[in-house]
Design goal:
single chain; mainly beta; two-stranded antiparallel sheet; Reaction center protein; PSI_P840_PscD
Amino acid sequence: MHSAVWSGNALHKVTKYYITSAKRDNNGRLDITISPASGRTKLKPTEQFIRQLENKEVQLLVLTTQPDIALDLNKMVIDNENRYVIDFDKRGVKWTMRDLPVYYNTMKRELCVEVDGVCYTLDKFFK
């Protein structure tokens, strides 16, 4: 009897994308640029991309170090998952860069980020 080859967690097969820029245009509308983890191309959040995000075919993230964020994340309480790393050099605990998942909120019909249990639309999350 042969066993099937399992290649690992299916989550690792999802293509990761990052919001690399979130600027306002002359009319105050948020203009978002998305890049894959490889960083080779630039995309916009099209309807097709949002459908893929909603179906969990792709994962969209924003780094907490993104300079366009309007919230002061350093003053907010973020859950401890991936917040700190152990410093094996015995120099203390260091702050790590953290990525926050972006999801499509079907009730608001907008892309959102959740920070400390509060849902923010990207329009409120970015400057």
